[in-house]
Amino acid sequence: MAFTSNNLKSIFITGANRGIGIALVRESIARNYYVLGTFRNQKNSKELLNIKYEYAEFLKMDVIDENSILKISRNIKHSIDYLVCNAGVNNGFGTLFDEDHSQKKMLEVLNVNVLGTILTVKHLSKFLNKNAKIILISSILGVQKHKGSNALIYRASKAALNNVMVSLSEEFNSRSIMACSFHPGWVRTDMGGPNAHISTKESASSLIYNFEKLKFSDSGKFFNYDGSLINF
Ligand SMILES: NC(=O)c1ccc[n+]([C@@H]2O[C@H](COP(=O)([O-])OP(=O)(O)OC[C@H]3O[C@@H](n4cnc5c(N)ncnc54)[C@H](OP(=O)(O)O)[C@@H]3O)[C@@H](O)[C@H]2O)c1
Question: What is the pTM of this model?
């Protein structure tokens, strides 16, 4: 394994094989980070695994398989400055009466988006440097005041995620580690669809630019990808 540039800032990104995740990987590489990116399935991660960069490691991890997180945590040798919990699922944009809101599909959304993030932070926080930043990729769909009744479990999962973020900001306060969440914009990915407003590159470059501007006093806050504050 090729590491060593302990002087490089490091970023750990879950769900790094496609969508916003892989754009964050590319943007981090362009900014000379040490990059740790996770994927679940080798077959649909070829683009990620073909990236050639000396200071990147790609690790197999499923956020809802605790053993897979523990397994990689035994092999991580680099400390982490930015822990970006990006992996997420959306069961669909229907209402509670639609097939995409079956109990099974709703449980999966809560499991991945909420518990998966908690497990990731729980098992990887030991690698966080002093002054590290825990960043949860949430969604504006999770704000309490909203119109519309569609995607209700996805909304609820992101509302819960923002609540978790506040608890994490309290939990890690004494280690001088901050936690916040970001809405990445409406982004053209498999989840966002082709009609979304911005490209993955636009989202990722603005996200990283704003990650780098975060201060400890931003802990517990929810930001838009352009750095503006969102009430939640
Ligand atoms: N796109 C948007 O407009 C938008 C808007 C607001 C918020 N977001 C949030 O932004 C994040 C990224 O979204 P995206 O648009 O890039 O979605 P995407 O294209 O559907 O990609 C989702 C990523 O999450 C990974 N993932 C899903 N379940 C996982 C699990 N159990 N363990 C590990 N990785 C898992 C996927 O891996 P596989 O390839 O293995 O499935 C994939 O890498 C999500 O949290 C999403 O809720 C997106």
Answer: 0.97
